Amino acid sequence: MADTQHRRSGSLLRTVLLYVALVVAAFIVLFPIYITVVNSLLPLGQILGKPPKLFPTDPQWGNYAEAFTNGRMARYLVNSAIVTTLIMVGQVGTSILAGYAFAVLRFPFKNTLFMLFLATLMLPIEVTLVANFQTIQTLGWQDTYQGLAAPFLAIGFGTFLMRQAFLGVPRDLRDAAALDGYGHFRFMARVAVPLVRPSVAALAVFSFLLAWNQYLWPLLITDDADMRTVQIGLRTLKGEGAAGLDVLFAGTVIAAIPIFVLLIVFQKQLVRGLTSGAVKG
Amino acid sequence: MGQVVLSGVTKRFDGLAAVDDLTLDVADREFLVLLGPSGCGKSTALRMIAGLEEIDEGTIWIGDRVVNDVEARDRDIAMVFQTYALYPHMTVAANIEFPLKARKVAPDERARLVTEAAETLGLSDLLDRRPAQLSGGQRQRVALARAIVRRPAVFLMDEPLSNLDAKLRVQTRAELVDLHRRLEATVIYVTHDQVEAMTMGSRIAILDQGVLQQVAPPQEVYERPANLFVARFIGNPPMNTMAGEVVQEGADVGVRLRGGTIPLPSGIAGVVRERDLAELIVGVRPEHVTMSADGFIEATVVVVESLGHERHVICDVAGPPFVIVRQSIDEQPPAEGDIVRLSTEADSLHVFEAETGERVDTDVPSGAAPT
Q1: Which residues of A touch B89 (CB under 8 A)?
Q2: Roughly what angle, to the nearest 10 degrees, separates helices A73-104 and A230-239?
Q3: Among the four given CATH numbers 3.40.50.300, 3.30.70.260, 3.30.420.40, 3.40.50.2000, the one describing domain B4-226
Q4: Is the pTM of this model over 0.95?
C-alpha cells in the first residue's frame, strides 16, 4: 500500500511539474501580446515610461479610433481582405486539383513532377522574389490586387497536404463512382473533397495566415498608399506623423484580430487536418 | 442482352501476365463464378470487364458490342465491391440514388426507383442513415441496392460476402441467388471461397496464375476436375493425391504407390497404355476412401478428427502427404496408431499425368455453356 501511495504521489508531482512548465511557456508566449494590448490603450507618454505599466488605469480607446481615421486602417484591412481571399481561394483550388492529380490519376513522370513540387517547399520566398517582381512589372501589375496575389496562387505545401489527404480516399470509391457514371471532376466535387474536408479547412487557414501576414512582397509591389495591405500600413501609422507609437500598437492589435478569430474558430479542424493520414483511422 | 464474351484477353503488370489469354463465354442471365486462390487474376479479369483496367490483348464483348474502348460508365454494368465502396458522407438513399443522378434521371423517377430498390433489399427503414451507422450486412445490401437501381444488363461482384461473418454469409448467399433469379440479369461473381462457388454458380471458371483451368457446372468440376490444380483446389477436405509409376501385368494396368499398388479401371488403363504414360498421379476424394481388410494400401492412423456429423481419419502412408478418409459418424472409428488397409472403387479414381497434371480420361470433359 505504501508502494501505491508512493507511486500516486510521484504521478501527482509529475502533473504539477508539467502544469508549471506549461504555465511558464504560456506566459512567455502570451506576455508580448498582453503588453501590446496594454500599450495600445495607454497614452503616448506612459508607453515609454519606467517602470512599464502592466495595466491601463485610464484606457485610451481613442487610439483605435485614431488608427481608423487618420491611419486609414479600414482601407488597409479591406485591401488585405481582398488579397488574402484571392490567395486563399487560389491556393486551395490549385492544391485540390494538383493534389488530386498526384494522388489519383496515372500519368508519365508523376513521381518526378511531384518531387519537383516538393522541392519548391525548400525555396525561401526571397529566392523567387526578383523573378516574380520582374514578371509582375512586365505585366504592369504593380499596385494592383492581382499583382499582390498572383505569385502565391499555387503552393507546394498545399499540393502535398491535399495529395496525402486524397491518398486516404479508398480507390474503390473512385472505381464505384466511375461505374456510377462520374468523371474525375464530378467525383472530386461530390465525393473526394467532401471526404477530405478537414484537410481543406486546414489548408485554408494556413493560406489565410500566410497571405494576411505577408510583408516583403506587398512592400515591394505597392507604392500607392491606397493599395497597401494591413502589415505595410502598420509601418506607415507612425511614419506618417498622424499618430505616434500608441496608434501603432492599436493598429497592431486590429491587424491581429482576424487571425485570432480564425484560429479559435478553426482550431479543431486545423489539428485534425494536419494529423489526418498520420494514423489510419 | 447480358452476354459477356472474353476472347484471348491478356493483362500484364510490369511484364508479368496477371490474366493470360483468357477466353470465356458467359451466357445471358447466367450466374458465373470466377474462382481461384488470391493472386490468380480473377479480380483483374472482373475489373477488365468493368472497364476499370485496360486490357493489353484480346477482345471483350458485352451484349453484341466490343467494349475494349468503351468507358466503364457506358458498359451497362454495375459492380459490387468487397469493401462495398459506399460513399461515407451520404445517406443510404443518396448512395442508392447516386448512379441515377449521374444519368440525369428525373427527380420523381429517381425517388421511385430508390424506393423500389430499397424495398427489394429490405432497406426501407434505413434510408436516412449513413453507412457508418449500419451493420456489415446492411452495408452489403446498400451496395447491392446501388447496383440494381439502374437495372444493368450485367452485375459484377468482387468477393461481396467476404467481409460478413460466417452465419450471415450463408444467409446472404441464398439471398443473392434469389435476387439473381428475380432480376434475370447476368452475374459474374468473383470469390476464393469454393463453398460460395459450388452453391451459387450455374458454372464455375477456375483460374490459377492468370490461366483458366476449367469452366463447368459445379458438380462436373467436383466429379471430373480437368487437372490436378482443380482437383486439389475444389473439395474440403481436399482430394488425396499420390504419385506413382505405371506397372503392367498382362492385360492389367496399375499404379505402384507407397504402401501398395492400385489397379486402374480398364478404360483409363487403355488410354495409359495407348499414350505410353509411365508416371501418374492418382487422386481419391476422402469420402471415396474406405478402410477394409482387402485394401490396396497399408497405412497407419495418425489422428481421428470428429466434426460431429462426420469423422476425418488421417492416415500416414509411409511419408507425406497424409491420406484423409471421410467416415460416417455411425461407423466404428479406428484407434490412433492402428494399421489399416485403404481401398476405393475403381470409378472413384481420378488419374492425372504426372508431367502436365492434366486429367487422363476416356472422354473429353464438356466445359460447354449451359443451355
Answers
A1: 191, 194-195
A2: 150
A3: 3.40.50.300
A4: no
